[in-house]
């Protein structure tokens, strides 16, 4: 987490059902410490901490007969290894711990500073520097704008056409992909050259599960976790579930629905399809995504498929789906993110009911009421 980090989604859709944010209504985009406080308040409100073993590091998970699990963990306080059996495993380790460092020709020659956004904490490190930022996803944009406040020059290297016309600070220049790195600078694929003091990778993360034995049947290929039914059920051992793998969607609501689905399946209140049916459904999903233009490493992206995904989980489990208005705010917020990055966090949202919400834009006297346009099947 870096010092200036604020959410890039409104807090109104970054909450768990039944526990709204208690913060001030005069802002929708909040700081990281405010989100942490929300999660701590949630745990306290529902008295969850008494059910959690803190200070334990899971070293190995292996399947047993009957789709039970053997879990080995180290108690970090006394360094004692503990092994226990469980009826189910729910993996919730997040997606932002294992940074991707791309292979860039000549990078080993570079004499300046090189870091990944995973290790970025404060823009002051880049004061008066000339810096190239590789990648322009949400973190790449956010950090580039943050660094530009103190840096001499920021070069944002990417190939995202949607960002091409974005208004940037005067000392920030968009560049094409890098051709080669030399001792004191970077040569770009358009033939231009810039002398730089530092390189900052904003190149994303990969999925890793070093604690899963090979018998678990899970492998990661090209950033695609195989094989998962509906992106969260281990097809080989369907009492293991992975929470939060899909990207480009409303995270908190997805986490909640996936966990409730897993609980429903583990309790036997709903039944999963057969292994063959789950494999066939997954095959069709992969083919559809590739046909739509997604690259193999993007197969867990949801985007406009989000409502269809949530409805499929609802149909399987008998649980309520995510309210469409939540996704409508997500997509509207993303559009504002793309068209006015410098000011989108000044927008203020308010959920009115399952179909309506209001948004107050900067410099607008009156808020605008909107109705969700996304249909739930």
UniProtKB/TrEMBL annotation:
Cofactor requirements of the protein: FAD
Record's protein name: Flavin-containing monooxygenase
Phylogenetic placement of the source organism: Eukaryota, Metazoa, Ecdysozoa, Arthropoda, Hexapoda
Pfam families xrefs: FMO-like
Protein family per UniProt: Belongs to the FMO family.
Keyword Flavoprotein attributed: yes
NADP among keywords: yes
Sorted UniProt keywords: FAD, Flavoprotein, Monooxygenase, NADP, Oxidoreductase
EC numbers, comma separated: 1.-.-.-
